[in-house]
Amino acid sequence: MDRRRFLAAMTAAGVAGPFAGVACAGRQGGAQPAPSGYGPLRPARDLRDGKVRLHLPEGFRYRSFSAAGEKFSDGGEVPGRHDGMAAFSGPGGSAILVRNHEIGGAVGAFGDRERAYDPMAGGGTSTLRVTRQGEVIRATPSLTGTMLNCSGGPMAWRAWVSCEETVNGPDVADAPGGEGNARLTQKHGYIFEVPLDRAATARPIRAAGRFAHESAAFDPSSGAIYLTEDNFAHPSGFYRYLPPKHPVLAGKLLDGGRLQMLAVADAERADLSLGQRPGAAYPTEWVDIDDPDPGFRGRPAYDEAVQAVGRQGRAKGAAIFARLEGAVYHQGVVYFVSTQGGDTSPADPMPDGFGKGRGQVWAYETWSGTLRLVYESPRASVLDLPDNITVSRRGTLVLCEDGDGDNYLRGLTKAGKLFDFCRLAPIAGDPGAEFAGSTFGPGGHTLYVNVQAKQGRSFAIWGPWERGLF
């Protein structure tokens, strides 16, 4: 398919949202639990070494791979803090994975420091070629010298956009806890393109903003990149970056475009972090960010610097969300997660940070500009602080939890059914371990996912998908 026909096809795909069933369920009282899913979860042994790391339905198998501290193909050490990830088709039925490493502090770059964006920053991405059963064929560093690479998103021109969830830099005072900003050589808080076939140039897309980026979702019809912001202690916003040329036509993401922030039409600074009625829908508009790449004098406090872009949007009426994290584009709709949106159940403790709830899932219709509430968690035992998301071939969303207790991979179907698919086995001495970076491989045979832990690792999960709702 040539580029013009490709763009026309993507535009046509956007006229009907795949989650109409969820919206209807929401109007009728919210999504209903479907605890059966693929059946009860049972302890399952890792085919790598026989240890129980996941609980899965009967018939599913998995193998872990590329754990922190292991070796890259060139002999370097795999960093930790595995986070957002995407899968692309590789030769011979393999998958090419691009994986973030959410490492902060002035700890030094992994890989080749001469190619690093900032030789003092320890985050970045690794690129792996793996089989459908999680056997590593090749693994190499691909973007180095960035910081706190949380999530990002796959791009239609076979690239990954990696997002820095920070505004650290030599021009900003250390955040609480200390980041060693004075030792950094570059400003941080940007998005970076990572091609599949070569190392990244490590050039930030500065016009896409300097803020606590989380995820990126590409709209192939318009060429816009939709961006979420995870500002832990302050209001967050939903953005879009309009590049100067359609990235599919350019073959890459160009700097120099326009950054905008979403607002609810005729409702200035609408606070969508609060509990919503089922099926809530809002007409929206976009406001321009006049200074997307602020520099700072006098090294302001981190809490001030991290709000510099968002405050510009809110001054023009942009909407308020609570910790926007995962985002994915599917058939004309961008689904994104507000990790702490909604209301806290009386049975649940109040979460730390901005927001009082246990999570919302929103849908932005790119063709109509309508924002809809897909799901709002009623309590932690149903859905607890959703983070990264992806979508299956059947249009079911996969939600990675980042909760206070047991963490699950949960499915949310187009009909509004929420079900459990996988539970993370407790890791001794690491109660903060969580799922991240779920992504289906070529053909949907394998679900690849990361566990962010003190010793992070990746997993390949496969089994009788046709038996259930993925």
Explain this structure to me?
By secondary structure, the chain is mostly beta strands. The chain has a domain at 31-65 and 397-470. It has 5 helices and 27 strands. The strands form 5 sheets. The protein has a 9-stranded antiparallel sheet with strand order 12-13-14-15-16-20-19-18-17. Strands 1, 2, 3, 21, 22, 23 and 24 form a 7-stranded mixed sheet that branches. The chain has a 4-stranded antiparallel sheet with strand order 4-27-26-25, with no helix packed on it. The model is unreliable at 1-18 and 23-35 (pLDDT under 50).
Key traits:
about 475 residues; mainly beta; nine-stranded antiparallel sheet; seven-stranded mixed sheet; disordered N terminus; PhoX; DUF839 domain-containing protein
